[in-house]
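Researcher: Re-running this chain for the archive, since the previous output was lost when a drive failed. Same request as before.
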Amino acid sequence: MERETQRCLAEAFRKLHDRSRLLVLPNAWDVVSARIFEQAGFPAVATSSAAVAWSLGYPDGEYIHREEMAEVVRRIAHALAVPVTADMEAGYGPKPEDAAATLRAVVEAGAVGLNLEDSIPGGPPALFELSLSVERVRAVREAADAAGVPVVVNARTDVYLLGIGAESERFEHAVRRVNAYRQAGADSLFVPGVRDAQTIGQLVRAIDGPLNVLAGPGIPTAAELQRLGVARISTGGGPMRATLTLVRRIAEEMRDAGVFTSFTRDTISYDEVNALLAAKPS
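Model: Regenerated structure tokens:
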């Protein structure tokens, strides 16, 4: 991808975070799922690190290598005309220079956004120390600036998602972390694991930047999230898990009833899928 084209996509993606309208951001795991989301009219598409890892036979949690993840991002970014943002877990290494290397891989892949978690992979639920997390975000910002692409850095805290600390302390803990990430250069602040309108509204007011929440059971509607002031909602691995639920249903139906209706009735046609992938980005 030409660098000037990538810069234009990055600026377009950045403008989608101005909070004038909620950015509903679907998470894909391969080219065809990404193309379906693009064809549906979404102005940008994200990747899901969990879903990409699962599709390649890995469990979630940085068992996949950075290079393999970046290659999937590259294939998606080069197949779409809309901006692509990459979920790159916790940056594939604890050090700031590891996070910077991950940012450079994302830019080389053609993506214009990056998710960076503050949870420590491969062990019991825990977060990187705040000072280290801030340095990791700062390293990503500096690497993006050096690359000449205004990458949208979405800094994520897993305080709520992992249930870190006493429940009564999580709000202040999450706010303290994401506001520090904002000061370090993050463009968007991601607090997954929060679904009730009251807490979401309080986060919007306390956080000094655009708030990203994660879709899940009980999450308010897009209209309500817009009213609350949320900038962005993403779907994570949910769409892929829903797809796998259908695959499991197909397997059980064939095994138990010997019928094939789950995948032969009201499904996307062979020709439609072929046409979807034959189309070139405009």
